[in-house]
Specification:
- With about 375 residues, the protein is an alpha+beta fold.
- The strands form three sheets. Strands 6, 7, 8 and 9 form a four-stranded antiparallel β-sheet that branches.
- It has four domains: about 60 residues, no CATH class; about 100 residues, 2-Layer Sandwich (Tetrahydropterin Synthase, Chain A); about 80 residues; about 45 residues, no CATH class.
- The protein is rod-shaped and about 210 Å long.
- InterPro entries: Band7/mec-2_domain (IPR050710), Band_7 (IPR001107), Band_7/SPFH_dom_sf (IPR036013), Band_7/stomatin-like_CS (IPR018080), Stomatin_HflK_fam (IPR001972).
- It is found in: Membrane.
- Keywords: Membrane, Transmembrane, Transmembrane helix.
């Protein structure tokens, strides 16, 4: 009984193991390579698959998705004998799981080595500066070579990217110094250009300012000269009108010899006024003025006996308003003083006429000028 139970247990274990080896579940985007006695038998697709237990065996499980592999930096010598480190990233996908299994032992390592050799070949034909600035060229060259080489391995290289290109530290320092010098040079050039533009603009501004100032001064001088000319013309016209007005008033009044002689005598004290006037000369006409002070027959040299009045009349404007009762005392006193002086002069003339020929006074003879005291 015990032996039968042991046999049943062993048989159950065998059945379970056989079922486990018979049923295979393949995940999505995977492919299982089945071998029978070490020889390729079939490729299992995603889902539930049945194989012969203990005869068929799933040797490899291939990932059919696109994969990303990054490789460590690889030292590369450029054309100008400088070593740089280039780090790359490759995107690839397995299209044929049978070829990827049996055509190449390790396709990832093969891709890495092929990338390294191709990268050295491409970078060896470029100098350092070209290598640093030709990433697209390196990517295109790597993609072309890897696509041709990995096609027979059942692999499709989708894309190749250069992550970084690192030159040696000494080269980096030299490049940084060169870049710093270039930046300083550009900054100095821009500063000089800015100063030049500023100087040019300042000079142009000063020029325009000087031109505008000169034009302003010229116009100011022209306007000032015109104003002076017009002022002189108006001043001359005013003086001319004033002279005409004075002469018109004189001729309209028709002064006689007595009035002119009296005014002549009134000017004599003003000649002697002043502290510095110690010596003054008496004109020779003073005697004649005294002789003909009250006589209508006496004449002074330079004063015409008859006046016909001005030939050119000047408009004097509206007549001055008459003075009222207020302020007439001064004018009455002046008239009385003039009348008294005229009467005194007439009495003196009559006295002189009585001593001479009656009826007509002889014109005064020319007398020599009095000697200077």
């Amino acid at each position: 009984m015990t032996a039968v139970l042991v046999v049943l247990v062993i048989l159950a274990i065998f059945v379970i193991t056989a079922l486990a080896k018979t049923v295979k579940i393949i995940p999505q985007a995977r492919a299982g390579v089945v071998e029978r006695f070490g020889k390729y038998k079939d490729t299992l697709t995603p889902g539930l698959n049945v194989i012969v237990p203990f005869v068929d065996k799933v040797r490899y499980m291939i990932d059919m998705r696109e994969q990303v592999v990054t490789f460590p930096p690889q030292p590369v010598i450029t054309e100008d004998n400088l070593t740089v480190s280039i780090d790359t990233v490759i995107y690839f996908q397995v299209n044929d799981p049978i070829a990827a299994t049996y055509e190449i032992a390790n396709y990832i390592q093969a891709v890495e080595q092929l990338t390294m050799t191709t990268l050295r070949n491409i970078a060896g034909g470029m100098d350092l500066e070209e290598t640093l600035t030709s990433r697209e060229r390196i990517n295109t060259g790597l993609s072309t070579v890897l696509d041709e080489a990995t096609g027979r391995w059942g692999i499709k290289v989708k894309r190749v990217e250069v992550k970084s290109i690192d030159p040696p530290m000494s080269i980096k320092d030299a490049m940084e110094k060169q870049m710093r010098a270039d930046r300083d040079k550009r900054a100095a050039i821009l500063t000089a250009e800015g100063q030049r533009q500023s100087s040019i603009l300042s000079a142009e501004g000063n020029k325009q300012s000087a031109i505008l100032n000169a034009e302003g001064q010229r116009e100011s001088q022209i306007l000032r000269a015109q104003a002076d000319r017009e002022a002189a013309i108006l001043r001359a016209q005013g003086e001319g009108q004033a002279i005409q007005t004075v002469f018109q008033a004189i001729h309209d009044g028709q002064p006689d010899q007595s009035l002119l002689a009296y005014q002549y005598l009134q000017m004599m004290p003003k000649i002697a006024e002043g502290d510095a006037n110690k010596v003054w000369i008496v004109p020779s006409e003073i005697g004649k003025a005294l002789e003909g002070l009250g006589s209508s027959l006496s004449n002074l040299q330079g004063i015409p006996q008859e006046t016909d009045g001005p030939r050119t009349r000047v408009d004097l404007g509206a007549p001055a308003p008459e003075l009222g009762t207020v302020g007439t005392a001064a004018s009455n006193a002046a008239e009385e003083a003039v009348k008294a002086a005229i009467a005194e002069a007439d009495s003196a003339a009559n006295t002189g006429a009585s001593n001479g020929a009656p009826g007509q006074a002889e014109p005064p003879a020319d007398e020599p000028a009095p000697e200077q005291p």
